[in-house]
Amino acid sequence: MSSTWGNSIKYTIFGESHGEAIGIVVDGLTAGFKIDLEEVEFEMKRRAPGTSKLVTKRKEKDKFEIVSGIFDGRTNGAPLCALIGNINQTSADYEKTKNIIRAGHADYPAFIKHNECNDYRGGGHFSGRITAPIVFAGAVAKQILRTKEIAIGSHILQIGSEKDVAFDSVNVKLDDLDSLKHKKIPTIELESAKAMEQLIIKIKQQNDSVGGIIETAVINLPVGLGEPFFDSLESQIAHLVFSIPGVKGIEFGLGFGLAEKKGSEIMDEFYIDNDCIKTYHNNNGGVLGGLSTGMPLLFKVVVKPTSSIKQKQRTVDVKVKSNTEVEIVGRHDPCIILRTVPVVEAMTAMAILDLV
After folding, report:
1. I need a labelling partner for 256 at 20 to 30 A (CA). Which of 15, 65, 181, 303 fits?
2. CA-CA-CA-CA torsion sign (36, 37, 40, 41)
3. What is the mean pLDDT of each run of 10 residues along the chain (356 residues)?
């Protein structure tokens, strides 16, 4: 398996959903940076399970223990390693159905790829649980980027049929990005959050799940950030974002909407504003030729509905090679997108820090 990513900075994740612990090693950070651990804890709580009736009931506080890389509160040049204990597993839920592959999960390809030795409990290394250490690394990356005035923020653009307004593509404000992370359902318009909450509750009562779209913005990027061809700004971000369980699509700027436009309609024409070169529009999402333009970097991510729902599904028993049915037990999110927002931001920060 490929559990290490990065060029200038190497990120290595480890652990399984129901193992003793999960964690991450970050190698390549410059020595002397003072990490605000309270801010890291805040980011971890944004992703943590069991925080409301809208998410899974699994109670994990996601308390991290830094075992290397910090001395007197500052990075010391050694690899930064953080451990997060798993304290609320219910592995027995999975023991009963260990040979039954779940629809929409990695169970079957993992079973084949790893010679029937994959950890089936909660998805093992394929679980969304593994994104907790990603958020830790992303929280550190965000702090380093803030020293360069680079800021990242996201809102939920859509859950099911309920939609929020999009970011202003040419004028994203820092205060707006910072305020979003303090909201239970991060939307620009309050009414959108209320409608989304009611939809999630309704879907949960139906023993079903729902997906949605996250819109992310990055401001104050230096012009020319990216290493085309293969390490373009879009390539780096897309690589990491597509590694998040449940993510099925990403688009920058107008993305797929460009297909129905004419060139004359989507040109990001330039002008000078107080010696700063800007564009009147931002249809390309702040990226041209794989390089940042200095305009806000904007992209959208599609997250599928949670596959684990309490409804009967047709499947296969891989041991006896027979058709069967299964009803998923355990504790699952009716809408995983609520806890995916900080993960997308973390992956974005990790990708940009590597390029910076």
Report:
1. 181
2. negative
3. 90 85 95 97 88 65 91 96 81 67 77 70 68 96 98 98 97 96 96 97 92 98 96 97 95 97 94 94 97 98 89 86 81 87 98 97
Place of tokens 């373009």: 232
Domain 4-355 has CATH 3.60.150.10: yes
* The residue type at 32: G
CA angle 324-333-335, nearest 5°?
A: 110
Bridge partner residues of 13 (DSSP): 24
Instruction: Give the residue from 354, 356, 355 showing the smallest Cα distance to 26.
Output: 354
Q: Which amino acid, residue 303?
A: V
Cα separation, 326 vs 311, in Å, equals: 8
**Which pTM was predicted?**
0.92
- If you ran DSSP here, which 8-state letter would residue 26 be given? E
Distances from the Cα of 224 to the Cαs of 148, 206, 251, 279, in angstroms?
15, 49, 20, 15
Which pair of tokens denotes residue 29?
Answer: 């950070």
Place of tokens 């973390």: 346
